[in-house]
Amino acid sequence: MLMISKNKSLSVVSLQLKTEKSYQENLEKLLSILKITKAELIVAPELCLTDFDYENFEAVAGFYETALSELLETVSDKILVLTMTRKEGNSFVNQAMVIHNHQVIHKQNKYRLFTLGDEIKYFKSGVQEDIVKFTIKGISYGILICFELRFKELWRQLEGTDIVLIPARWGKPRKRHLEVLSQALAIMNQTFVVVSNSADDDMASSSAIISPWGESYMDDGSALLEKSINLQEIKRTRRMINMN
pTM here? Predict the structure, then answer.
């Protein structure tokens, strides 16, 4: 497998999309973006194809299996990160999935469920040990799903990661929290952080691509935030401020 040098720039897209009522319409929008973007890494908001839609969970889980088949066919050399409602046994999980080279190369179920959003009533919680670093082409990644961003013990689990990915459906009343926490994570772990949040009317937007120095690239009015990041910044920041 071709390795990417840490000196290389990586083209990143953070999607800031509204979720329409039609699952199929949302899927077609995502597939269209995947086909036209030249970005190497694309991060989509949490449950971007269906929202939570608790009343139709069986249909939601069934749709995601169909969507996964189409996404696997479409995603070749790019890296796509999104979450899906999936059925495991008699339970439903909110599963983060990384697709690359027509394969699912990493998955983890949401561990910290958001009680205020009734997630605990509908989803089975994942396990903390599944929140791990994984590597693609020489770059290490980690994922925190929305509410998980609030837990400092999970930040520690991802220390040393080059890029932390945060697919989210974070509400507007807590907008500032999303911005401050994601920036703090970048500074504390000296890592790039890519936040992809929903742009629904009741959601915070605040998607961002944040450098290890804490500099945020944001635009609440854009459906696609695209930026080339220089991976050398990780090494430079960690050398300048040695946390060991």
Answer: 0.95
